[in-house]
Amino acid sequence: MANEEIIKEEDYGVLLYYKYATIPDVEALFNFYDSNCNSLSLLGRVRLSPSGVNVTVGGKLSALEEHIAAVKLNSLFEGTDFKLASCHEPSNDRVSMECGFTSLSIRIVKELVTLSSCPLPRSPEISNAGKHLSAAEFHSVLHNVGNCQDKLVPSSDKGTVLIDARNLYETRIGKFYTPNVETLDPEIRQYSDLPSWIDNNSEKLRGNNILMYCTGGIRCEMASAYIRSKGDGFENVFQLYGGIQRYLEQFPDGGFFRGKNFVFDHRVSVGSSDSRILGTCLLCSSPFDDYSSRTRCTYCRMLVLVCDNCREKDSSYVCELCQENSQCIQPTSATEFDDSVEISEVWEPEAVSTSDRIALSPLVSVEYTAGPRTLRKLRILCLHGFRQNASGFKGRTASLAKKLKSIADLVFVDAPHELAFIYHIRQNGDSASAMENNRPPSESCSKKFSWLVAPDHKGESDSDWKIADSPFDPLQYQKQTEGFDKSIAYLKDLYSKAGPFDGILGFSQGAAMAALVCLHQQKLKGEMEFRFAILCSGFAVNMSNCQQGSINVPSLHIFGSDKGKDRQIENQTSRHLASLFENGCSVVIEHDFGHIIPTRPPFIDQIKDFLKRFM
Q1: Any idea what DSSP says for residue 547?
Q2: At a CB cut-off of 8 Å and minimum separation 6, what does 181 contact?
Q3: Residue 486 in contact with residue 453, Cβ under 8 Å?
Q4: Per-residue pLDDT for 136 more than 60?
Q5: What is the 3-state secondary structure (H, E, C) of 567-599?
Q6: Residue 549 has what DSSP assignment?
Q7: Sign of the dihedral through C-alpha 248, 254, 257, 261
Q8: Which residues, in sequence order, are bridge partners of residue 18?
Q9: How far apart are the C-alpha atoms of 391 and 401, rounded to whole Å?
């Protein structure tokens, strides 16, 4: 009996592979995976996109080998690294269910991995990804850092840095430790946070040989391409081909890798022959590296390490990132992560330009246990801030749009007043380098617009850069009091062509304009009507005669607290605008994150609660 159990356990395996390639017929490939995986009784996840595939499936080793053979018959998969490992068969427990190993999920997606939750200014091309280094080559480079004779990477005056492209909870149980190499751990909650970290730490990377690694390699593909897209000083990027998994196969003792490799299947983690534990319990700091309990942060839902002695049923835990941010908020509801309700979207957030403003009202099909039911999502017209545009505002609010996608669609529009391109002279000497720094950007820039302008606005719309007349004034918004008539006429025309809209959302000057629309609601009746307004970092313009509580429009006001670090719009300014709306139908959300619209819990939950009143 024991021998039979051993044979059964060894007969099971997990297969991981990905391939970036242009897929000419995604539907045909979907049908192949559906037929092949089901016939072989494979379970797990298959993600297909026009740019490639990403697969993690489990099953009998013989079935997985048959699957590999069938996939290899397609020339699209030439050169694919199929990572096959034997392991125990998953049981029908919480770990297997959470990792998707109790069923087969095949989906067609836009991106194999989401590099950023916001549209990037310059999308990286996968063809520009970093150079692949085999496990042996990667090990050799780390071993020979500082050796000018190493031919695998070019010599660098600054040196070599090593980036861990994984999430914080993964790095806490295992990572590379190499003498003489600076290892950079971005400490991110999710992969889509990595571009922001790269942007904020670009000077640490510039001019260095940059080595990257992740679990199996796919996350390094787009991340390395993003780094290289930054241009001069970011050319020398190298990635561990096959990821940590291939490295540990090549170096069973762990090599330069310490701890365990976190994996996204029922195995949870895979280690080397080195049994040392790198992770520690969140509460007592004792050595611990087992995520099998799937314990999560009460606030952000990130996995946390809590040892068996400290873990208690129904207890709340706060991850280190939330602790650093001094979270004292209501916990995220578990239903936020409940997959029992499946939403099928048929429409996406859009940016409406001045030349194309027509949009169709989207529908959402929600599957309930009692049967399908179709609901119309809310449509919200979004007004950007001063010297912004629809496309840029859409990018900055991508996280908000994503988290509201089941109940609302955001429609973005450019303001009617086009602004001239200006730049400020830096007072940093008369040297040649100083003169170079004072030149305007050489690349072409997107047009910028505003809803309200200063009285001396000349309406320039040419593409030439101009030197600013005066130093930047953080209170300039107080001087932008003209242009309302043109903007309101523009919005009425837009509403007639692209409306109706359920609500209006404005950010900064856009909030000031939205507030004026609410103020004039009686005059606008029949031409432009909104059931609610969301005003973010707002302020009042041309509303000196408006009485407190006199604007009778349901409103949500979102702005920074006294210590919210909003250096553009002071707390009292936004608070004053909120006071002009009827108190009984207004909601105020204050946060500590500056001049932004926060999308973390509990703020996103409060925003959703407000919107659900109008569903």
Answers
A1: P
A2: 142, 145, 160, 161, 162, 211
A3: no
A4: yes
A5: CCCCHHHHHHHHHCECHHHEEEEEECCCCCCCC
A6: T
A7: positive
A8: 54
A9: 13
**Strand order, beta sheet including 131-133:** 131-133, 237-240, 209-213, 160-164, 182-184
Cα R_g (the chain), whole angstroms: 27
Q: How far apart are the first and last CA of the chain?
A: 60
Q: What contacts 421, CB < 8 A, 6 or more positions away?
A: 440, 445, 448, 463, 464, 465, 466
Cis before 119? omega within 30: no
31 SS3 class: helix
Reply yes or no on whether 297 is catalytic: no
Distance (Å, rounded) from C-alpha 320 to C-alpha 88?
Answer: 32
Helix (H/G/I), strand (E/B), else coil: 58? strand
SS3 percent helix, strand, coil of the chain, rounded to 5, is 30, 25, 50
> pLDDT of 444-482, one tens digit each?
456 888 999 888 766 655 445 555 555 545 556 577 788
- The CA-atom distances, in angstroms, between 388 and each of 57, 285, 359, 567 are 45, 47, 21, 17
On the question of pLDDT at 11 being above 90, the answer is no
**149-171 per-position pLDDT tens digit:** 566 766 665 789 999 999 999 99
User: Strand 363-368's sheet: what is its strand order?
Assistant: 342-345, 363-368, 371-376
Comparing 90-104, 223-237, 329-343, 507-521, which segment has the lowest mean pLDDT?
Answer: 329-343
Alpha helices in 46-148 (DSSP H): 61-72, 94-98, 135-143
Give the C-alpha separation, 530 to 67, whole Å: 55
40, 67 Cβ separation under 8 angstroms: yes
Least confident piece of the model among 24-33, 74-83, 374-383: 374-383
8, amino acid identity: K
Point out the catalytic residue in the list 37, 99, 214, 382: 214
Q: Under a CB-based contact definition with an 8 Å cutoff, are residues 15 and 68 in contact?
A: yes
Which string of b and e fits 151-171 if b means at least 16 CB within 10 Å? eebeeeeeebbbbbbbbbbbb
Question: How is the beta sheet containing 503-507 ordered, strand by strand?
Answer: 350-352, 408-413, 378-383, 503-507, 532-536, 555-560, 586-591
Give the pLDDT score at 245: 92
Q: Which residues pair with 99 in a beta bridge?
A: none
Domains of the chain by start residue, with CATH: 10-108 (3.30.70.100), 126-147+156-278 (3.40.250.10), 378-418+482-613 (3.40.50.1820)
Helix 509-519 vs helix 484-498: crossing angle, to nearest 10: 80
